[in-house]
């Protein structure tokens, strides 16, 4: 059986070189910003125009929000640079920087001059809040999103007063680079040390981003991870698509938005990014029962509405943190499992993650009994993956949604993804070289690489040949060449049936034993 994989590895544009495959799995996690840094649609400042004699700006009745609480200062003065203070445990604010020796710059007060007023917080190495600043600037400096609390815009009028554009205090008025951010870490453990994720939102709640990192880290997965933060998961995914390669040169192998899959448009966006990056996206199904998850006939069928390259996962699991139990979607746990499996041996991405133990779970799983028809098997038969409890907690299923039936197996899809991307990257050197000088090396390099995969048990067999039909005189004259690779991966055992039959033909064995 042959199938069109759907991705043609095309080299556009010397000596032979070994083809090397990237060994580390890369994860892209889309999440909403932690609650501490949510923007609040309030008017935080009342500005009094600059005083001609002092050049000071007075901010009256200033207020802002942090951690779900509102803080207010009756009145204080600000200079061109900044005014700093300390946020006390009781919620009060101690101001500093108002000494008579403070450097005061006279601010331009020409009509139409626009100023941006923003509040920021300062975090210590442990993530604890240790202060805040109110700042005024005529342009936005490059700031870290995690430092920003709020922004408003004020313009000096012809009468010399401040005109505060109230509509501009809404979130959409803040420049996009303040609302979105990409963070790269060597692994989930390193991300959990970052101020954005080092502390829970409260004693009983972690942000979805922090929870996902904890779940990935629990699998002992040592792999790079990029976290895209925005006001919504949909915006975080869009931002990752636009900026991920430019900022980090990062191509993800796994994409997820744990805890955010219920947001409108997220499932379609996950599929869009998975196709764009030629990878797999993990999707937590929202079905509240096995029957609902299995539904493929109603107009509201969740399964029918999922796009290509999504790995649908049903159910949840209980984990324990800080001596409390938490019910969590499964996608981050599965992402960590896949990354751990990939890194467990050479070419680990060529092995199925199904029927492998997931760490950190204390309760959960779909009903399963080996050798019997079960809900878990029914889900798997419909292309849905789930959690089972059988000699530990395990992922059950290796299904992905795909319009090409031959590539609905996550292992097969990821093997061919890896082959296509590796060839694209490693044979780029051949572009714009003389055909006779490089094409023989291209083929021999491909054959040598595939032989390594065959010898490692990833491929069962392969054949490499130049395509006689596509390599026409016209195509060759235009420098376009077509190399076909027919390959089959080593199959996974999906079902093992052992039948025990009673017979009565071994009586002579007993007689021989007795006679001896």
What features would you describe in this structure?
- The strands form six sheets. A six-stranded mixed beta sheet has the order 11-12-1-13-14-15, sandwiched between helices. The protein has a six-stranded antiparallel beta sheet with strand order 6-5-8-7-9-10, with no helix packed on it.
- The protein has three domains: 1-14 and 428-516, no CATH class; 27-34 and 180-351 and 354-397; 40-173, no CATH class.
- It is of the alpha+beta class.
- It starts with 26 loop residues before the first strand and ends with a helix.
- It is 24% helix and 25% strand.
How does the overall form come out from the CA principal axes? globular
Strand content: 25-35%
Helix proportion: 10-25%
Q: What's the total count of β strands?
A: 22
Q: Using only CA atoms, what is the Rg? A: 30 Å
Count of the separate structural domains: 3
Termini distance? 56 Å
């Amino acid at each position: 059986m042959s199938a069109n994989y759907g991705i043609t590895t095309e080299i556009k544009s010397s000596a032979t070189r070994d083809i090397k495959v990237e060994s580390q799995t890369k994860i892209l996690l889309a999440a909403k910003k932690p609650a501490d840094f949510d923007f609040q649609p309030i008017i935080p400042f009342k500005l009094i125009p600059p005083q001609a004699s002092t050049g000071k700006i007075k901010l009256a009745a200033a207020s802002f929000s942090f951690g779900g609480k509102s803080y207010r200062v009756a009145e204080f003065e600000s200079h061109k640079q900044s005014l700093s203070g300390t946020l006390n445990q009781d919620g009060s604010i101690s101001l500093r920087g108002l000494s008579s020796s403070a450097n005061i710059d006279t601010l331009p007060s020409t009509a139409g001059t626009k100023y941006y007023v923003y509040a920021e917080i300062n975090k210590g190495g442990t993530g604890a809040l240790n202060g805040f600043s109110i700042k005024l600037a005529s342009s936005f400096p490059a700031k870290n999103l995690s430092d920003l609390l709020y922004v408003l815009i004020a313009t000096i009028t012809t009468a010399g007063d401040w005109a505060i554009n109230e509509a501009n205090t809404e979130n959409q008025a803040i420049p996009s680079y303040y609302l979105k951010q990409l963070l790269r870490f060597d692994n989930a453990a390193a991300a959990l040390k970052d101020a954005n994720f080092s502390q829970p939102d409260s004693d009983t709640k972690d942000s979805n981003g922090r929870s996902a990192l904890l779940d990935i880290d629990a699998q002992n997965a040592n792999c790079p991870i990029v976290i895209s933060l925005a006001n919504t998961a949909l915006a975080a995914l869009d931002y990752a698509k636009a900026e991920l390669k430019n900022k980090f040169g990062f191509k993800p192998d796994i994409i997820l938005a744990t805890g955010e899959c219920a947001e409108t448009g997220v499932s379609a966006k996950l599929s869009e990014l998975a196709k764009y990056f030629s990878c797999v996206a993990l999707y937590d199904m929202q079905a509240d029962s096995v029957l609902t998850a299995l539904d493929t006939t109603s107009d509201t069928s969740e399964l029918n509405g999922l796009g290509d390259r999504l790995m649908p996962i049903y159910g949840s699991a209980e984990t324990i943190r800080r001596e409390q139990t938490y019910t969590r979607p499964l996608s981050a746990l599965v992402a960590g499992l896949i990354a751990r499996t990939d890194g467990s041996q050479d070419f680990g991405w060529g092995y199925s993650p199904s029927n492998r133990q997931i760490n950190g779970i204390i309760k959960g799983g779909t009903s399963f009994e080996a050798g019997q028809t079960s809900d878990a098997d029914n889900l798997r038969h419909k292309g849905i993956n789930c959690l089972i409890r059988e000699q530990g907690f395990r992922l059950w299923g290796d299904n992905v949604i795909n319009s090409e039936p031959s590539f609905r197996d996550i292992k097969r899809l990821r093997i061919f993804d890896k082959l296509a991307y590796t060839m694209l990257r490693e044979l780029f050197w051949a572009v714009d070289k003389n055909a006779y000088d490089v094409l023989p090396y291209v083929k021999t390099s491909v054959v040598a690489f595939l032989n390594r995969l065959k010898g490692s048990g990833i491929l069962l067999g392969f054949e490499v040949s130049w395509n006689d039909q596509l390599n026409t005189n016209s195509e060759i004259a235009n420098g376009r060449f077509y190399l076909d690779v027919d390959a089959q991966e080593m199959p996974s055992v999906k079902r093992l049936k052992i039948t025990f039959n009673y017979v009565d033909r071994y009586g002579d064995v007993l007689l021989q034993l007795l006679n001896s």
